[in-house]
Amino acid sequence: MNASNIYQQPIGAALPDWQPRPFPGRVVLKGDYCRLEPLQPGHAAALFQAHQRAGDNRSWTWLLREPEQDEAAFSAWVTSVCDLLDPLHFAVIDKQTGLPVGSLSLMRIDEKNGVVEVGSVHFSPLLSRTPASTEAQWLLMRYVFDTLGYRRYEWKCNSLNEPSRQAALRLGFQFEGRFRQALVSKGHNRDTDWFSIIDNEWPAVDSALQRWLAADNFTADGKQRYSLASLRA
């Protein structure tokens, strides 16, 4: 409920106990299908090979950087970002193979206001459209909301990136609007769509994700019994 000041102007809900939240750390987050661990140079070779399985570069279209042409260049990129605090990059490790199959990051970290964005999401064909890809997102959400106590978790994407838009909505993010002409990306205009999950929405989002990820939601051949959207509804 919104509060009012002495002039009877609305000033938003009071948060008398709010304190700045901890800054995200280089932690390992374990799930049933995958684990997240801080991105390291040792991940580079296997991660490069995982992305090579795509056969073409269409998964790079909406990323802010161009694809590296060889393993050495990709390894140099990993080395250049793995010690950053913001973005804070994580590798997604397939628990069956023990190999990295994708990466994502926490970025635009605002511990004072309890706001953080998930970004730099780049999943190889070994991860995309698998239970592990959903679990990787859930593990990071759970860390942000349950461990760190943040109030707001953001997702932003190129407005033309329909797969990313649909992924955000499927995971339970709410569409907030479009920032027109937000960036010049690779020589082209980019309008950016904003999505978020806030803390009072998280319990329902969390419950649906856990129900979807449960082993009994999948048939013997790995097909889902219930969609994530249906479980959330």
Shape: globular
Q: What structural category characterises the helix and strand content? A: alpha+beta
Mean pLDDT: 96
**Helix residue percentage:** 25-40%
Number of strands: 10
Cα-based radius of gyration, to the nearest Å: 19 Å
Outline the biggest β-sheet. Answer: 8 strands, mixed
Distance between the termini: 26 Å
Elements, N to C (H/E):
EEEEHHEEEHEHEEHH
Q: How many helices?
A: 6
Estimate what percentage of residues fall within beta strands.
Answer: 25-35%
Sequence of strands across the biggest β-sheet: 3-4-5-6-7-8-10-9
Descriptive report:
- The chain has 233 residues and is of the alpha+beta class.
- Helix content is 27%, strand content 30%.
- The chain has six helices and ten strands; from the N terminus they run ββββααβββαβαββαα.
- The strands form two sheets. The chain has an eight-stranded mixed sheet with strand order 3-4-5-6-7-8-10-9, with helices on both faces.
- Helix 1 crosses helix 2 and helix 3 packs antiparallel against helix 5.
- The chain starts with a strand and ends with a helix.
